[in-house]
Amino acid sequence: MRVRNVGLSEEQKASFAPICPDFVVELRSQSDTLSGLQKKMEEYIDNGALLGLLIDRKNRKVHIYRPKQQPEILDNPETVSCEPILPGFVLRMAKIW
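User: That's the sequence. What structure does it adopt?
Assistant: C-alpha cells below.
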C-alpha cells in the first residue's frame, strides 16, 4: 500500500485528512438503498480508492469496484479476493451472510 499522507501539512495530518483510502467496504443495512450505496462506491473510486466492496447481505451479492472498470457482481460467493490491492487477503463470506 502506498502512503497517502505524504505532502499533507502537520495540521492536516492531525485532523481529518482530505484523502481517500485505497480500500473501502460498505455493508448494506436494511435501511440503505442499493442505488445510494452504489453512488457512494462510485464516489470513492472517483476520489482515488483502488478497490471497493459493496456487500449486499439481503441479496447475497458482492459488488466489486475498481478504477476504470464496470462493477463486477458476485452472486453468493464463498470468498472474495482483494488481490492485488491487499496481497493475500481473502474475505470469507460465511460469517457475513
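The helical segments are 10-14, 34-46.
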